[in-house]
Amino acid sequence: MSDNLIERSERHGLVCLTVNRPKALNALNSALLDALAAELDALEAEPGLRGVVITGAGDKAFVAGADITEMRELSAAQARDFAQRGLATLKRLEALPVPVVALVNGFCLGGGCELALACDWAVASDNAIFGQPEVALGVIPGFGGTQRLPRRVGPAMALDLVTTGRKIDAQEALRIGLVNQVMPLAELDAYAERLAKQLAGNGPQAVRSAKQAVHDGLDQDLDSALALEAGLFALAFAGDEQREGMSAFVDKRKPNF
Ligand code: HXC
After folding, report:
1. Of 1, 86, 214, 220, which has the most beta carbons under 10 Å away?
2. Adjacent-strand bridge partners of 54
3. What pTM was estimated for this model as a whole?
4. How far is it, in rounded angstroms, from Cα 221 to Cα 211?
């Protein structure tokens, strides 16, 4: 792997970003946040994008947190800046119009867990370890963990994790809904290949609308959210994808999206 802090590769329109600082267990420092922001500049401008996966270099860590060495000397004002930069970058990742999936290949702690939570869902290798251990360092999560974790796993489990700082294994992460699937480390790549093919086989605008309906709907009351879905459903009939998808079914052929 090169010296780039974020490595980028692509298959069938699925872009894979690999956080590449394995000697520090891929800990997120300012330079890495900048590199991620630069990748997002490119991804936001890519009309053919079908999905994004994000993983860590090496076989030990996804991301072991924000960089403790860098944070150690921060003043309160600098800490606020650092957190704001991370929050803004993760918000942009979350807001990409296509599915964004964390492939968690080892330690997924602190800011690493927050990075995974900013993804639409996560799959984990069976050696993965999760946690929000910030309290053991005398701080709290600062890249969204106190807000996205309870939304993903419920407030009681989130409070357990953010106040005890205890670490959980992949099976427990699966049980509490922090990850969708657990698999051997060696199978993560095949998962990404399957995902790329699945997304490439679906209507690209339909996939985007499905994501938008879930994300935007969660911020609204149920009646407004159902109206949002109805609007996006109808919109699908105004484009070419619906005719192609349904004609392909009737003609017993694969759709050409
Ligand atoms: C900087 C880190 C790091 C981190 C690991 N390293 N995690 N450097 N920041 N978050 C470095 C180590 O210093 C070490 O460098 C190398 O990576 C290998 O780590 P080891 O500790 O030697 O490995 P191991 O004994 O296997 O332990 C793995 C580990 C441990 C359990 C993951 O590294 C660990 O506890 N890391 C910190 C996890 C954590 O507290 N994360 C939350 C950070 S706070 P050298 O040079 O010695 O080889 C946070 C806040 C987010 O994320 C919000 C910010 C606004």
Report:
1. 86
2. 17, 102
3. 0.98
4. 17
Cβ neighbors of 39 (< 8 A, separation 6 or more) are 6, 8, 17
In angstroms, the CA 241 to CA 243 distance is 6
DSSP per-residue letters across 211-234: HHHHHHHHTS-HHHHHHHHHHHHH
CATH number at residue 245: 1.10.12.10
Q: Measured in Å, how far apart are the chain's first and last C-alpha atoms?
A: 33
| Number of the ligand 1 atom closest to the C-alpha atom of 61 | 32
Q: Which residues lie across from 100 on neighbouring strands?
A: 52
Q: Kindly state whether residues 47 and 75 are assigned to the same domain.
A: yes
For the question of residue 114 being annotated catalytic, the response is yes
Residue type at 130? F
Whether the CB-CB separation of 204 and 50 falls below 8 Å is answered with: yes
114, 172, 241, 244: which one is catalytic? Answer: 114
Distance from C-alpha of 74 to C-alpha of 17, rounded to nearest angstrom: 28
Within-domain flag for 188: yes
Q: What is the DSSP letter of 57?
A: S
* Domain of residue 55, residue span: 6-199
DSSP class of residue 24? G
- Residues 31, 67 contacting (CB under 8 angstroms): no
Neighbours of 255 (CB within 10 A): 16
Q: Hey, whose CA ends up nearest to atom 41 of ligand 1?
A: 65
* Residues 65-98: tens digit of each pLDDT: 999 999 999 999 999 999 999 999 999 999 999 9
pLDDT at 1 over 70: no
